[in-house]
Write a structure and sequence with these properties.
It is a single chain. The chain has 5 domains: 117 residues, Immunoglobulin-like (Sandwich), CATH 2.60.40.10; 109 residues, CalX-beta domain (Immunoglobulin-like), CATH 2.60.40; 77 residues, Sandwich (Immunoglobulin-like); 98 residues, Sandwich (Immunoglobulin-like); 114 residues, no CATH class. It contains 2 helices and 43 strands. A 5-stranded mixed sheet has the order 4-11-10-7-8, with no helix packed on it. It has a 5-stranded mixed sheet with strand order 22-29-28-25-26, with no helix packed on it. A 5-stranded mixed sheet has the order 31-38-37-34-35, with no helix packed on it.
């Protein structure tokens, strides 16, 4: 062995003593080759997950060498195996050496680092209080982080985790304080950490918490866990107002609620009827009974709200005004306005005039808003082709209990002649200044002047006299109670709050416009004037 890399060396031996008659060769050639180098190849390291150790191997590889090659695995300078591959089952971690020797005592060795990645806990998030354990509400319930190891450890073992919160999150203020580590007792393989949100009474943004686990490995990867803590707002319930309906009528009630924390348990209760929905369909009973809507949220908080349902036993109503026969003055602004007693509002009306259905507008006026029922009035056409003229009005009225009546009104439109004199002498005959204005719409004021333009009587609304002969002018001076006005001609002005169709000339005596107003063409239908002779 010259330890030089010379390639193939050839030696030839010649034997001159062998003659040509011999069968032996007269020369022999020998070649000397360089011996193949002996080498051992190993990976630098073998790192196994703990659950893979039973099935792993340290794999040895030998190349070259002369003749038979012997090899062995060493650990701490002691032979542990004469096999080419060393099983990792129950094999201690550390540095292992694989060595080989051939027949020429050539040797080669290599080392490999063997290590085991121990199994680490897995972490899960769960909750008995929330359907989604990652979404919590302040002061309500909890969620739980559960750390589970693959087997019980022989000793108490500590694992750390990181708590990273949003800018408005404070550990110990928004949740009960977490210390950032767990200690699993020897012989146990799981431990739990409760996340208990605290109600802080602040109206703030959602708080986010991120849990990270440094013990996560490629063998047992553990993803981060993120949770949200939402503000808790109290439960609010919006119900319809108290209801008054007919006995036996079907009524649907619907509730709207907000706040609290899902899931919700909801219910309606009315008498013996109870449903777990946000709407309730009931047959109303006679009397006043409560309908109660209740919400209980996932935090265990509950709220109830009540409406009163009054069931009326209504089977009769009637028209008390106007009578079945009424009168209107030609050209005036008369109107039929129904006064109804009984039944259950609101009412619906279907009007007919002379057998034909009418859809004439029925406006509301400022002076009768407190009494006017939508649909209950009709403007009378007080300018017929001739007088007297009779209209036959018919109205079908239905209340909210579906009770229905028919009411007929005969309206006679005629010329209403204004009086020219009256005799207030106490004989109960023509003692007051009475006018026939028909069923006029709106207040009509009356001013009366003597021949010198002095106001002797004034009424803001003369209709009580027209309708009931109450409050009529009896020929006395209104500023001096009981003083009788002298006989003679007096002049009056009727002022209509709603214009009529009659037109007067305003040519009364020689009074100035300061008394009777501007020229009549600017006051068409707003005023009527005339004179009355007072005789005792």
């Amino acid at each position: 062995m010259d330890e030089e890399d010379e390639g193939v060396e050839t030696i030839e031996f010649n034997f001159p003593f062998i003659d040509v008659c011999s069968t032996w060769p007269n020369s022999i050639s020998i070649q000397i080759y360089e011996p193949p180098p002996l080498s051992v190849q190993l990976d630098a390291e073998l790192i196994l997950c703990e659950d893979e150790q039973d099935n792993g191997y340290l794999e040895g590889f030998v190349n070259g060498g002369v003749g038979n090659v012997n090899y062995a695995w060493y650990y701490d300078n002691e032979i542990v195996s004469l096999e080419m591959d060393l099983s990792t089952n129950n094999l201690p971690t550390g540095v292992y050496t694989f060595s080989a020797v051939d027949e020429c005592n050539n040797s080669s060795a290599a080392s490999i680092n063997f290590d085991i990645v121990p199994s680490s806990p897995t972490v899960t998030l769960s909750s008995f209080d929330y359907s989604n354990p990652a979404e919590l509400f302040e002061g309500c319930g909890s969620s739980t982080l559960t750390f589970t190891t693959p087997y019980p450890y022989e000793n108490d073992t500590v694992f750390y985790y990181d708590i990273i919160g949003s800018s408005n999150f404070f550990n110990g203020l928004d949740i009960e304080e977490l210390v950032g580590y767990i200690e699993i007792p020897a012989g146990e393989n799981s431990i739990s950490v409760d996340i208990n949100p605290i109600f802080d009474g602040l109206d703030e943004f959602t708080e986010n918490i991120l849990f990270q686990f440094p013990f996560s490995t490629n063998c047992v990867p553990q993803e981060d866990i993120e949770i949200q803590i939402n503000n808790y707002s109290p439960i609010q319930i919006l119900l319809p107002s108290d209801q008054t309906v007919c006995n036996g009528q079907t009524l649907e009630l619907e509730a709207v609620y907000s706040g609290g924390m899902p899931p919700y348990d909801i219910s309606w209760t009315y008498l013996d009827n109870s449903v777990e929905f946000d709407n309730l369909l009931i047959d109303v009973q006679e009397g006043v009974f409560p309908a109660v809507f209740t919400v209980e949220d996932g935090c265990g908080f509950s709220e109830s709200s009540t409406i009163l349902i009054e069931g009326l036993d209504v089977d009769f109503f009637e028209v008390v005004w106007p009578p079945n026969e009424v009168f209107a003055c030609y050209g005036d602004n008369s109107e039929i306005i129904l006064d109804i007693e009984g039944g259950l509002p609101p009412y619906s009306f279907q009007w007919f005039v002379d057998g034909n259905e009418t859809t004439s507008t029925t406006p509301s006026f400022a002076w009768n808003d407190d009494y006017w029922i939508p649909g209950s009035s009709q403007i009378i056409a007080t300018s017929p082709p001739f007088t007297p003229y009779i209209y036959e009005y018919q109205v079908l009225i239905t209340d909210s209990c579906s009770n229905e009546i028919e009411y007929n009104i005969e309206v006679t439109v005629d010329e209403c002649i204004l009086p020219t004199s009256f005799t207030p002498n106490g004989d109960d005959n023509n003692d007051v200044f009475w006018l026939n204005l028909g069923d006029i719409v709106g207040p009509v004021s009356l001013d009366i002047f003597n021949r010198w333009g002095t106001l002797v009587y004034r009424s803001d609304d003369y209709r009580p006299c027209v309708d009931f002969k109450s409050g009529c002018w009896d020929g006395t001076y209104f500023k001096q109670f009981g003083q009788e006005c002298s006989e003679g001609v007096y002049y009056y002005i009727l002022s209509y709050s709603n214009p009529i169709h009659n037109v007067d000339s305003y040519e009364v005596s020689n009074f100035t416009e300061a008394i009777f107003g501007n020229p009549h063409n600017k006051n068409d239908g707003a005023k009527r004037t005339g004179s009355i002779l007072l005789i005792r």
